Each structure stands twice: as structure tokens, then as C-alpha cells.
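Aim 2, interim progress. The first record below pairs a target sequence with its C-alpha cells.
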Amino acid sequence: MQQIALSYELLRRYPEEAAILDRALTIIPNDVAVKSARVLVDFDWKADTRPLCEMIDSILAKDPGSISEAADNWFLCAVLEHDPVAAERALVAQGDNPWWSDNAVLLSRSFGEGLLARVMKDEPKARTAFNKARAEQEKIVQAQPDYGPALCVLGLIDAALGRKEAALQEGRRAIELLPVAKDSINGSLMIQYFAVTAAWAGEKDLALQQLEIGARAPVSSVVLSYGSLKLLPFWDPLRGDPRFEKIVNSLAPK
């Protein structure tokens, strides 16, 4: 069932995804992974964070021992609510696991620490965390120099650190290494995350161009859902631009 639900998510067929997960929950009502997937449908589809945060509150109140299974979503909820204390607790619960997993795009705990610090306007802490994330990611790229998703993430980190030219070069190289024709899912992700890289690098026109291409892709990443575009800090550099708001509105629930 979860594989079918994932397919619906990639196709932005959220009503069908919700129905499949609701059915799964009648069979395994206490499964944290399924509950997490279900509340994220509301986030992706409607930009509704209430089910997500209510689920985290419920786990912490009734079964705190299982919170590690939903630590990534706890961190997401805390970042969206600008709650640094909860976010730090979520990162501890996350351990060494990636904070963000979107098919082949994996963002480390250090990346999450940098994102949180930037959201909280603590630039020295953000730079320290992103520098740590870069050192970790550089080792991954050195071990897999022709692996597009690893370069894609390095580009994101370099953009966060103000290394504009390196970031754009790495993002473009990731698209070359993993084109949509070779891998329709992860190839689309290379374009969609390159839009974030360009936005963070201050290349707004390029970011919007890539975002438009990504929005037309046959499959969608988590980062390009309506909820993510509406609320995720990744897209903050583009907020207020009419071209960006038009793309966001085009993905709003009908």
C-alpha cells in the first residue's frame, strides 16, 4: 500500500494517496510511518500543518519512545513554527540519519542545523553548521564524483554558504549527470532542487525558470509540493515575486 501511495504522491494525486493511507491505518492504526505519510498528504496537498503537528504532540504525549521514527517530521513541524527548542530536540532524536529524504536527495542533520539557524536569524551558527555539512558532503562527492544527487546537495550547501559560482556549476552538473530522460523521478528532482540552489544563490530569474520547468515535470518532488512552496524556508528568497506566487497558486488544491 505504501508503494502505491508513494506513486500517487509523485503524481500529485493526493486524494487517492490519502485514501490508500487511510485504508492502511484501519489495518495498522499505530504504525508511525503510515501516520507520518498520511499527515504529510495534508501538508503537501493543502499546506495544512495542523495534522502534522498534532501527530507529533500525540506521539510525545502517548508514546515518546517511538518519536525517533517521526523525528524528521518533528523537525519540519518545529522549523515551520519557528520553535528552536523543539527543533533541537528533534535533531537529537534523528541521530545521524538524514533530516530530509526526497528519493535520492538526502540532507544531513548538519544541513538541518544550518537551516534552523538561518530561519532563526543566527548567521554565525548557520555558517558553522553549513560548513560542517559541506565537509561531510564533499566526502560523499569525492567517493561518487559522477553521482548527480550528491552534487545537487553540494550545490545547495555552497549556495547557502554564498559560494555562488561553485553552487551553480554543481547544480548544472547534477542535471547533466542525471537527466530526466535517464531517470524521470530523480532527474526531475535535479531540476527542482537546482531551482532552490539558484534562489539561494541570488539568481532569481534562473530559479523561477527552473521552477517552471520543474512544475511541468511528470513527477513531483516533496520540495515542489504546494505545501512546501507555500511554507518551506527553502523558497523564502522568491516570496513576494508575482511569478513565484503564480506558480504556487497553480499548484493549490482545486
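The second target in this work package is listed in the same format:
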Amino acid sequence: MSDPPRLRSRNGGRSLTDEAYAQLEELIVTLQLRPGVAVSEASLSERLGIGRTPIREALQRLAREHLVAVLPQRGNLISEIDIKKQLRLLETRREVERLIVRCAARRAMPEERDEFSQLAVTLNRAADRNDPKSFMRADKRFNDLCLQAARNEFAAGAIGLMHGLSRRFWYLNYRQAANLPETARLHANTARAIAAGDEAGAAKALDSLLDNIEAFTRATFSTDF
């Protein structure tokens, strides 16, 4: 009997494919799997304790997000970081994400607004503690909740290809060029505006956040593209 791709995890929550994706995405974004490193389904399966079919499906999803390059007959490579690609990504991200936060502010359910409020607290706590891993996890949940609350599958499909690359680039360079507390607080401001149902405020807060991210990105290199 084949390994069912949507076999549920032991805790009865997300599928094993989703679990494999979440763990691999964090390993890549936090540079525990370094750019340019070759990885195999077998080694990742052993490392995570998850079967090879969910690992394969997770790698395919990560390839669509440009975090992994799947090379026929050669295996899988963690993708290199490309500064030109990051700047093109930010151009697109600003327009799509502005739509997403406005939709989230308009359409979020009461329980989602409560979670946005709690995320604002968590992000401010990460800022106070200057804690990159807590920030990264809260940022990931903030991104996912924005997509859930926006209820626009087309915008979700577009932005889903960008978040992992953005988070990895930030994690690689934040010690040299970023102000983590400021970045975390700008995220918190956006979360609070969404929680309050303030569409214009959410868009304005997002613009401030992306201005910060673009300035940080440009501060990591000296060549004018």
C-alpha cells in the first residue's frame, strides 16, 4: 500500500506534507539548511522523522517558492540568495500585500481579530527582547493569518511565493543591516490596524513596514541596480 500523501500527523492536526513543509521551510529560512547545499529526500526524511512521500511533496512546494531547486537525476539544492531577485520581489510584494492587509482588515472574523491583537503583543515582546527566532515565528503566523483573513485565493497564491524568500534574506542579513525591534514593532502596528478593522491604517502601516524592509535590503549591498 502506498504512503498516502495526506496522511494526518500524530497529533491529528495538519497533514504530514504540511508538517514536513513547515519544518523544512523554517530550517531553510533560519539557514540551518544553507544556500547551495544539496539535500536528499532520504536524509531529510531521517532528520525529520517523516516519510519520503510527504518530504517529496514539501520539496516540490518549496521549489515553487524558489527556496529549493529540484534537479532531475541530481537531487535537490537549497537555492542561492539573489539580491536582484529580492528587489524585484519587493516591487511586487508591496502591491499585492497592500491589497491583502486591506482585505484582512475588512473581512477578518472576530476570532481572527483577536489573534491579530495577540500577535501584536507577541511581536512587541520580540522587539523588547530583541529575539529573532520569536520574531520569525510570529512573522510567519502573521503572514499566514493575513492570507486567511483576506479570503482572496489569487492574492494568496501570489504572495505565498514571496514570503519565504523575504524571511530568509532578512534572517541572513539582519545582524548587519536591520533593526529587529523596529521591524517587529512595524509588524505589530499592521496587526493592530487589521484587528481594529482599519483598512487605510493597515495599508499605511504596511507601507511603513515595506519602506523599512526595502531600506534594509538596499543597505546590504553597495551596487546600484
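The longest strand covers residues 68-71. This observation will shape the mutagenesis plan for the next reporting period.
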